[in-house]
Design brief:
Radius of gyration: 22 Å
Number of helices: 7
Bound molecules: 2-amino-2-deoxy-6-O-phosphono-alpha-D-glucopyranose
Structural class: alpha+beta
Number of strands: 10
Shape: elongated
Largest sheet: 6 strands, antiparallel
Strand content: 25-35%
Distance between the termini: 50 Å
Amino acid sequence: MNNVSKPAPVPLYYQIMSRLLEMIDTGQLKAGDRVPSERELTEQYGVSRMTVRQALRELEAQGYLERVQGKGTFVSIPKVEQPLLSLTSFTEDMRRRGLTPGSVLISAQVVPAGRRCGQALGVSETEPVVRLERLRLAGGQPMALEVTHLPAHLCPGILDDDLTGSLYKILAERYGIALASATQSLEAVSATGPEAKLLGVREGAPLLLMERTSRDREGRVVEYARSLYRGDRYRFSTEMLRQVEGE
Ligand code: GLP
């Protein structure tokens, strides 16, 4: 029953991956459980160790499994499913999932906007902007690394605030800035050494770079943020409507 089928057109490692995923989906293997060792899986499925290794490596790369040096391979905690429909804050996103949000403030300063950020915010390169670098946590675990820029004239004195909580809350409560819309892009990147260290992943690990330009109710651009989300912790989802041209 357990044996994978050798003449099948689906590669053996993929069949093993599917079996393990099925066990995760049905709860036979739960978050934190140790998956059987390479040797056990080799015997169980009657395949080579290399095949088992490939299946485990692939599931690890996709974030379903986590290898702990000297201890074995474990089922990861499920990814955060993040819909891309509404303009929400990190704090709101984590709370909605029952996770405790947190931040480590890495740096906070006023700097000249520079070209890229100036363009995004619609200000000159020399315009002073507040630059915040924060490591975002959920339940104490690193989830994302964010660099946020805000036009300094919109939020005077913000560097004196406690910036380990929600920035959107500070903008709303202290500065009366009500965010209304944003333009956002998402792309795959790999972690540089320093990013990997902060996020607790290996160098080169897959990350999702999200770039957001947010506007308030008056249409002013109030935020330009670059967020690096851990690829093994996040999954973005969206709803779609089909629009067929010419029909
Ligand atoms: C998300 C967005 C950022 C935004 C942040 C605000 O993470 N990607 O662009 O700055 O939310 O979150 P919070 O209000 O928790 O600081």
